[in-house]
Amino acid sequence: MALLLAAALAATLPLGAGAAVKITERSKQKQAAEAQRADLRQKLDNLKRDISQTETEKDNASDALADSEAAVSKATRSLRDLSAEQKQTEAKLAKLAKQHDELSKTVVRQQNQLADLLRQQYVAGNEDRIKLLLSGDNPNRINRDLQYLGYVSQAQARLLESLRANLAAVEANQTEAQDAKDDLDEIAQEQRDQKNLLEKEKAKRATLLTQLSSKLASQRKEAGNIQRDDQRLSGLVDKLAQLIEAQKKTEAAAREKLRQQQLAQAQAKAQAQAARERERQRLLEQQRAAQAGKPPVAASSPTGPTPAGPKVPNPDAIDDDQPPPVAAPATPAPAPLARNELTPEADSAYGKPFESLRGQLRLPVRGDVMARFGSKRGDGPSWKGLFIRTPEGSEVKAVAAGRVVFSDWLRGFGNLIIVDHGNQYMTIYGNNQALLKRPGDAVKAGDVIASAGNSGGNEQSGLYFEIRHQGRAFDPLGWVTTR
Which segment of the chain is annotated as a signal peptide (predicted)? Predict the structure, then answer.
């Protein structure tokens, strides 16, 4: 009988019931994340247009590479994100498999216990309470047997309920496992698509480089081009700083408004609680006065005392001698940080202040420093940062904690990423092959944010690196450790 019951319950388990739902949910989550970044991306696109609209130069060879280099960066970042998602999903699948084994063992054990209980009840003659009461046996024995039957019934009910819960957990586990497998299939397909796209874009870029090589070489040597590139980057940094400051003011105003609203709500709640407590005390005084034969105490009003007749005590009032504590207004928590914000509410959110890290930073990539801050660039202006020669694809790491405020292609610097470290300190990483972080992403010191390359028409593979404070560049080597 128990086995039949367990089999009937187990037969209700559908396999893979939620697979399609999970795929749809995953797609929705990706679309929601993209929509969340859209506003920030629009602001940054507007900044780029503002910087470029004053330029009369149209025929720049590196511009022909812009779309291809940006596509290579995007495909590389997508592959990296998919690889991380695949590892997380595989770990989740392994965890679900372990849970499934444990649940299956529990279900089998509970089925056996239920079978033993039913068997024992059957062997005992399956006596019910009515038979025992009418048996005419010793009342003490009848009472003992009735209690025993009650215990058995309770044990059976608990066991059945636990068995049902575990069978439902097995069903949920199987559904979730199937969803995870479907996720892996979807991720694998996306990886294949992105790899094909990456290979096509790399081939396209190689063809363009071959066609434009002589033109790129001549334009790299033109002092006017170098100066315009430097002005373009400086303009971008200045506008980003303005945007960050404006956003900080907006966020501070919104937080203050929320704080005032929460404070007003807390005060209103405290006042209402105090009024209820006064009313409770008045009712208690009325009751005591009625018992002592004294006239009842009238409720006070803002316009003065008003005579009050007999009043029926509030049945919902608290009827003890200990009044409930009046809650003090709670200090409201600051508004939560939106995911696509450019900067946290305070510079301390980055950890240590950036200015305290002088002499402790590490260069963002391993390689040879080929150009130093202040050295001349042919007939053009001096270098405002470092060029570190390193193989294509080398990991570029954030030198300190901060938030990405720009991650896009910019003429003269290729795939460029800028990290804000608070207090108007920024680090700049240019000529990357791929940008692995998006605007709004928080990073820690040592996080991989890009891979080195030669985008933007650079002749050597490497990384261009700057540190700026209040828009002014200074020598990064004075901030890095030699250890």
Answer: 1-19
